[in-house]
Amino acid sequence: MLELQYELESKAAKWYATIDIANAFFSIPLAAECRPQFAFTWRGVQYTWNRLPQGWKHSPTICHGLIQAALEKGEAPEHLQYIDDIIVWGTRQWKCLRKERRSSRFS
């Protein structure tokens, strides 16, 4: 986290905008062959996750990597990313908001 803070402090920006991808983990499907690893029993009924579960130690890494790949593939404007949060900046409000709109199309 400190690396992100230092990076932001190095920018000559007056405006910042953030994007938080809601329910990012739950929008990532688990491969069918992986689902048995996430099975659990509750009140005598067995369930399994079909989406990337919150609380699993690898979920943040997987989520971050997939979002990062989408942003890079889509040539998103200069930004910083931490898991499902994206921040863009600019010297003027309109520049910052334009970057935010462009970035949100890729995520």
Largest sheet: 3 strands, antiparallel
**How are the strands of the largest sheet arranged?**
1-5-4
**How large is the count of helical segments?**
3
> How many beta-strand segments?
5
Helix percent reads 25-40%
Broad shape: elongated
Radius of gyration (Å) = 17 Å
Segments where pLDDT lies below 50 for 5+ residues? none
Question: Strand-and-helix sequence, N→C?
Answer: HEEEHEEH
Please state the average pLDDT score: 84
The percent range for strand residues is 15-25%
Structural class: alpha+beta
Number of domain units? 1
Distance between the termini: 21 Å
Provide an overview of this structure.
The structure is a single chain. This protein has helices at 2-9, 59-73, 93-106; strands spanning 15-20, 39-42, 45-48, 80-82, 85-90. The protein is built from three helices and five strands, in the order H-E-E-E-H-E-E-H. The protein is elongated, with a radius of gyration of 17 Å. It is an alpha+beta fold and 107 residues long. The strands form two sheets. It has a three-stranded antiparallel β-sheet with strand order 1-5-4. The chain has one domain (2-106). The longest helix is centred in the middle third of the chain and has 15 residues, at 59-73.
